[in-house]
Amino acid sequence: MLLAWALSLLNPAPLRLRRLGYVRQSGLLHARSRRCRAAWAPHLENARGIVAAAAEATRGRRHAVVLGSGLLDDIPLAILAQLFGRVSLVDAVHPWPTRLAARRYRNVALKTAEISAGSAGDWTGACADADLVVSANLLSQLPIVPLDAYKARGREAPPHLGRHIIEAHLAALDTLAEQAERVCLITDTMHRAEDRAGEITNTLDLMFGVALPRPEAAWDWEIAPFGEIGRRHRLVHRVHAYPDWRAARA
Fold first, then answer.
1. Tell me, what CATH number does 111's domain have?
2. How far apart (Å, rounded) are the C-alpha atoms in residues 133 and 58?
């Protein structure tokens, strides 16, 4: 928790996004990713492989856009920077490791925007001339800050808010798939808690009931190994990958 608190102070972000809780959420994710580095490694390797394959399959090489770039742990930035004339990293918060990584490449730019249903114009503009658009491990995260904001104020969130946010992002990807040559989507879809005997003790639909097409690839992501949230339980997410979202939707 100390690391997450320190990161929430150090990571730069506009005051509006800081007040909404995006910097805090980024710090929590950063801290957990470092604590669970070994457990997350297979998932991150799979994700980077999907993004790299999508990049190599894209014939147009002018501009690649990464939505929800975060810490870049799941993004092969070196490959994107080599293949494309420009690379735009779009997120509400760009942590210092990402800022330092971006500085290594003259063709990589940071774009700060809230990637949510209520401010689509803030980030879709960054994709206007994109040949490749990547949304990696972002979709399930989008409802977290808006839902937490209602909870923090002691208010009940509007019905189906989480579902509407998920649907809005997918609709935006559908539109982008008609403009860009390729859209690549990677998202965790289901959450399950398991005990040490391998029994499932709880499940949660991270898509809020939104149905996704059959993925080209799928795998388990051990997001919280034994000891992270308790000695007797671990958390596992099911991940779906779509290196060509338009083809998956067809």
1. 3.40.50
2. 10
Pairwise CA distance, residues 233 & 223, whole Å = 12
Task: Give yes or no for residue 80 having a pLDDT over 50.
Answer: yes
Among 138, 167, 173, 165, CA closest to 149? 165
Q: Quick check: 17 and 92 in contact, CB under 8 A?
A: yes
Rounded to an integer, the average pLDDT of 178-191 is 97
Show the domain range for 238.
2-249
% of the chain surpassing 90 pLDDT = 67
Provide the number of structural domains found in the chain.
1
Q: Residue 98 burial (CB < 10 Å; 0-12/13-18/19+)?
A: buried
Q: What is the pLDDT of residue 125?
A: 81
CA distance 132 to 54: 8
- How far is the CA of 59 from the CAs of 64, 78, 132, 138, in angstroms? 12, 18, 9, 25
